[in-house]
């Protein structure tokens, strides 16, 4: 009898320890998802579902229209490919890569996905991040290409060419895929239950190494490069004293490129940094954490508007190419007339 009682006590003790471990693990999961076991984010997440839907639907429709239209125009209407049109075509492809996962992201905001869809979810998340940061680097390349053409015209004859532009675009595609795919596949841990795709990444995704590389190489370095190149180009055009339509169009392209970059991506990367401070327990106030969570989700939604803002670049590039084509056509016609008049005089 005493041995049976002792065994029962041992069993009850082990059961109690298992319960405590389960409670601790549940608290750990909650702390990973919300950075604090006592802070509920339901009042933030629920309204954000409707906000995401209201933002993503127009972005998806307008972005698909702009980017598919740009690809159609560039591939069918342009007879000669320039460096600018090559970069813009690659940017349009990056934008389409960002837009394709948006319907799945909208679905994931309202529904959980079964466990078997984890690989498909990671693949869609990869496409989303590749489109985002590939687009950032394409915008940077457009700025550097303009800087070379205007500020260093003699070096540009050696460095700029359609073939060099194609090789640069291919290098960026390879770089972005190889840099992002290994990281994003480790953003979420393997779960045995239904999960929310595009939401609730594991702590691996908020490690200092990942966030520092994301902020420096994903945003700050391209932003500083683009701002410096654009400022020097504008200064060069103003110093030259040119007021031609070509120079004015170039200034419009530069301003639209800066707008497409800084307006969507500056607030979202600031929000990512603040959320990183939350995960590092630097910010522990529940009200501040809720505000940061809402700020992060809102800015991440609005950062996708770059797919629509890039349409401004497409318009200016196409307009500039159209004007240059007309000017070249007029010059060729004038030269033909002069040649005919000279031969008639002879």
UniProtKB/TrEMBL annotation:
The chain crosses the membrane at residues 53-74, 86-106, 126-144, 164-185, 216-237, 249-274, 294-317. Gene3D superfamilies: Rhodopsin 7-helix transmembrane proteins. GO terms for molecular function: G protein-coupled receptor activity. It comes from the Eukaryota. SUPFAM superfamilies: Family A G protein-coupled receptor-like. GO terms for cellular component: plasma membrane. Residues 1-39 are annotated as: Disordered. It is a multi-pass membrane protein. Keywords: Cell membrane, G-protein coupled receptor, Glycoprotein, Membrane, Receptor, Transducer, Transmembrane, Transmembrane helix. Signal peptide: none annotated. Residues 66-314 form the G-protein coupled receptors family 1 profile domain. Residues 1-10 have a biased composition (Basic and acidic residues). This is G-protein coupled receptors family 1 profile domain-containing protein. It comes from Poecilia mexicana. The lineage of its organism: Eukaryota, Metazoa, Chordata, Craniata, Vertebrata.
